[in-house]
Amino acid sequence: MFGFKSSSKDNSSAQSKASSDADQEPVTHDPILTPPSDYKPQPSPFLDESQQVFLIKIREYVRSIMLPEDHEYYASEKGFLTDATIIRYLRARKWDPEAAKIMLENTIKWRREYRPDQIDPEYIKSEAETGKMYFNGFDNCGRPAWIMRPRFQNSKDEDKQVKYIVFCLERGIRLMPPGVENLAIVVDFKDALYAQNPSLSTCKKFLDILGNHYPERLGVAYVLKSPWFFFTTFKLISPFMDPVTKAKIKFAHDEDKGKSNNSDWVSLRDYFPAKTLERAYGGTFNFQYNITNYWKALLEKTGNPYKVVDYL
Which intervals hold domain CRAL-TRIO (predicted)? Predict the structure, then answer.
């Protein structure tokens, strides 16, 4: 399904030129947090008459349970409960309005208690120190690239680990350009050790939050340089994964070693513009993570934690 033919002479030449150009690029510590102007978002599915009726019914329902206007969290909740949000929940529950209503109501309760959009950046900044998880670049569809590098795991504080994941999800949503509603995750297992692998408990919490409170926000997840223990963990967490989510996970070729013999594996160069893809993944962007530059750029781009945004 995802097989690609061997590179032709022209493709090899183009890749060699890209590599040569990348070698000449100076190192930068500033991430790309603005999409290229030529991104092509995936078209939004057309709603048929029955789906529009479901949308109207749930819209009326959520208005009936929203916080009062004088509540301190009202503006944030109103910004979250857009038609786009409701449609994502309906899609996640295969257009079963009752199931979508229950799912959305659970998220509303969770957001009121957890306040995911108001997590204090200073509280979780230590989790970002090493660059184990950050945003940099966009794919061809304009989806923010969320880079994960387990080898830089630097914490055993599960509360902060989970809060940093949620913080990243919220910031990733703020980075999405018009017409884009999900993320492209790149999990780079290079040099990762078993001891650095997130605990099963943390993985389950991540999947629970992603699946139940951020439905349809995962566009695709690429796994690179996967070690033996990843497959062990993957097998353990698979029962907790939604089949739709599982289908979005793709294994990518190690560009340092050439293409795998597995025809289902993919190349990131086919999904990302070379200019926004890091050299480590086959692109030309010569980026090295630095917490000072990254944190400043991210907060400037996405605003303070109390900034009210519309979830589109």
Answer: 123-289
